[in-house]
């Protein structure tokens, strides 16, 4: 079984929900039969990530992520980064540092465990260290450190030529990245940002995770056209000019796609009456802090 729980479903500037980060868990049987999944993956970990994850540990079935009231960062096996905005990477300094200390023995519950694998494109991984993390993490115990002191970085290539374009969880679930049209320097895809297609090798079913993106119907249909569940980002208000996907744009999609679609990355106005139509026109707004079953 593969499940996905959003730590939060909010936009970058939302205050009523945490940032849109998700915990994916692979189970031999399922959360009803197991205390802990066999493998897991964080999709992004933004500035609100540590607080959101702390709250998640209080929920039924997520106790394995805490120890004596603190987050057990050693329980996080893998992290995938869609892109470098702070609502997607702002919690990584804490995850890196606390994980490092827990692996060194600061957390009694933690057996010596490997560094979490860190997946994204080579450009994202390089810029993550040089422009975001190095300032806070670059020196430890009187020596200079690098990204691989904290993580096992693994570069992916959406073209699949310079590196694989996918990784596998639980020897069964394939995660393939694809570029998204989020921020442009001069043209589509020249600023690195990614979404994910997840495929169950056993059933052949797939799920789609849009990442941050402008409306891109061709990309959605190519990568999510046959997905049984589609997690898609949304911007509820037409202003500011979008680097995201407007609700009005998603409403132009055929009913067959919209019914399978859960919207995330939304602003604090989601429960205004004008957005009540989301529950009729789509699968609804994604809910935070609970598991969705992607594949049985
Ligand atoms: Zn975002
Ligand atoms: Zn973004």
Describe this structure in words.
The protein is an alpha/beta fold and 296 residues long. The chain has one domain (2-295): 4-Layer Sandwich (Metallo-beta-lactamase, Chain A). It is 23% helix and 25% strand. It is built from nine helices and 18 strands. The protein has helices at residues 49-56, 86-89, 92-106, 122-137, 147-150, 217-224, 247-250, 255-258, 278-281, and strands at residues 2-6, 22-26, 39-43, 66-67, 70-71, 78-80, 117-121, 139-140, 143-144, 152-156, 166-169, 173-179, 194-200, 206-209, 229-233, 261-264, 284-285, 291-295. The chain has a seven-stranded mixed β-sheet. A seven-stranded mixed β-sheet has the order 11-12-13-14-15-16-17. Strands 4-5 form a two-stranded antiparallel ribbon. Helix 9 links the parallel strand 16 (261-264) and strand 17 (284-285). The longest helix has 16 residues, at 122-137. It is globular. It starts with a strand and ends with a strand. The mean pLDDT is 95.
Q: Kindly state the number of beta strands.
A: 18
Mean pLDDT: 95
What is the straight-line distance between the termini? Answer: 5 Å
Tally the structural domains. 1
Beta fraction = 25-35%
What would the CATH topology be? Metallo-beta-lactamase, Chain A
Envelope shape: globular
Strand line-up of the largest beta sheet: 10-7-6-3-2-1-18
What ligands are attached or bound here? Answer: zinc ion
Number of helix segments?
Answer: 9
Order of helices and strands: EEEHEEEHHEHEEHEEEEEHEHHEHEE
**CATH class wording:** Alpha Beta
Rg over C-alpha atoms, rounded to the nearest angstrom = 18 Å
Q: Indicate the structural class.
A: alpha/beta
| Low-pLDDT residue spans | none
Query: CATH architecture, please?
Result: 4-Layer Sandwich
Fraction of residues in H or I helices: 10-25%
In CATH, what is the homologous superfamily? Ribonuclease Z/Hydroxyacylglutathione hydrolase-like
Biggest sheet: strands, sense, closure? 7 strands, mixed
């Amino acid at each position: 079984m593969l499940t996905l729980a959003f730590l939060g479903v909010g936009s970058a500037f939302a205050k009523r929900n945490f940032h849109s980060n998700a915990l994916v868990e692979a189970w031999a049987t399922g959360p009803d039969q197991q205390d802990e999944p066999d493998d897991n993956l964080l999709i992004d970990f933004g500035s609100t990530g540590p607080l959101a994850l702390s709250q998640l540990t209080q929920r039924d079935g997520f106790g394995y992520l805490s120890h004596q009231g603190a987050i057990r960062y050693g329980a996080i096996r893998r992290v995938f980064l869609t892109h470098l905005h702070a609502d997607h990477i702002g919690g990584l300094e804490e995850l890196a540092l606390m994980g490092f200390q827990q692996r060194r023995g600061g957390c009694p519950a933690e057996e010596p465990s490997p560094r979490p694998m860190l997946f994204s494109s080579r450009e994202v991984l390089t810029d993550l260290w040089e422009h975001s993390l190095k300032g806070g993490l670059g020196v430890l115990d009187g020596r200079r450190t690098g990204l691989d002191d904290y993580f096992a970085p693994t570069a992916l290539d959406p073209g699949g030529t310079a590196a694989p374009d996918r990784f596998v969880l639980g020897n069964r679930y394939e995660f393939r990245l694809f570029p998204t049209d989020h921020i442009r320097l001069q043209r589509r895809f020249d600023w690195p940002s990614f979404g994910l297609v997840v495929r169950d090798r056993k059933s052949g079913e797939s799920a789609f995770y849009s990442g941050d993106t402008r409306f891109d119907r061709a990309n959605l249909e190519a990568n999510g056209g046959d997905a049984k569940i589609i997690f898609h980002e949304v911007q509820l208000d037409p202003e500011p000019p979008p680097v995201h996907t407007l609700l009005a744009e998603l409403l132009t999609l055929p009913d067959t796609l919209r019914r399978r679609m859960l919207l995330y990355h939304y602003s604090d106005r989601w429960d205004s009456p004008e957005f009540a139509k989301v529950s009729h026109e789509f699968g609804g707004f994604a809910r935070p802090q609970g598991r969705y079953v992607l594949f049985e």
